[in-house]
Design brief:
The chain contains two helices and 29 strands. By secondary structure, it is mainly beta. The protein is globular, with a radius of gyration of 21 Å. The protein starts with a strand and ends with a strand.
Amino acid sequence: ASCSGDKQANDGFIVLDIVGNMDADNTDNFDEIADVKMMFHPELTDSTQIGGFSIRGIIDNHFYVYYNRMMIFNQDGKCISSFSRSGGGPGEYYAPWIKWGVPYNGNWMVYEPFILNKERKNVIFSYSASGAFIGNDTIKQFYLNRDLLVPYKKEGWLGAVVPTDKNIRIEKYDTAWNLTDTIVTPFIANEIVSVRKSKIKWVVQPSLPTSTGQSYIQYKDTVYAPDFAASKLTPKIALKLGEYRTPDNYCPYDSTGDYIDPKVYLTTRHALVTYNHSDECVVQFYDRNNGKLVASFRTPYDPKEIAYRGVMMKCDGEEIKLRPLDYTTDDTFFFNADSETMSEITGDMEANPAMYSVKLK
């Protein structure tokens, strides 16, 4: 199998040859090129019952996690805070549409859009780390999903606005939720696509995968970095997909095409790329300096399943199924070992999932 990469001359712009590496064999010496370790395995209690990890921030070595409630764990896996403020009273939300640990003060934020809020406003709720209600703000923009409103370093927030038939905008907010800057992208949010001989509008959304050390935007097969000084997006990584690239006039609801839709997560030195193809889930690591494939894993995937359990990796000499999480730090990727996997390891049929870290050497 090819392990090709391509580094372009224009300021570190990298092409990852996804199509050339689709048939790469599973890496059998991953423990020699990466440190894989269990970060923590929380005790299962009424206030720490977790179906799967959703990292909503890592602040002062504390992990902000959401699963039906806001939870904070220390590095040893001890829960130091767990709360829910669901309801209709003062300081309560109906549904926590978007939620984050706040990098600059350690609090929690919850965004509730006007379609769920009883006052028909887009509301930002603020809570202390322990769950005490602090106050709320209102913002103009309506964000469709959690990937479109994320922390921006420790300077505030980054949002992707997807208006009807207009250019997608990347907006920056300060810590008080004042709009401070905007990048108007060349991308149009809605495209006319064909679905079984019918013409419909399909909303093509960007995603803003989150890292403690960097901010970037993925739109289709390219990853960009926001450059607010120049009011533009600077391309950093392109995915070479060849015949498997989703056409611009194609809708995911039309199942006749054999295309892939990779998701990219970055550390400073590496890129993690994951996608489904031919009833397999593929997880690959690439070197951001030269675009070369570093490691590859694939596992059978049943499209009827809600989520796959993960790809097989080694930790402390033992094989374990791990699924990548959509959060990184400067040098670390995070993975989830689900409850079934941890039950097999511990013998406890009511085990919580565990969080693992992967750091390439």
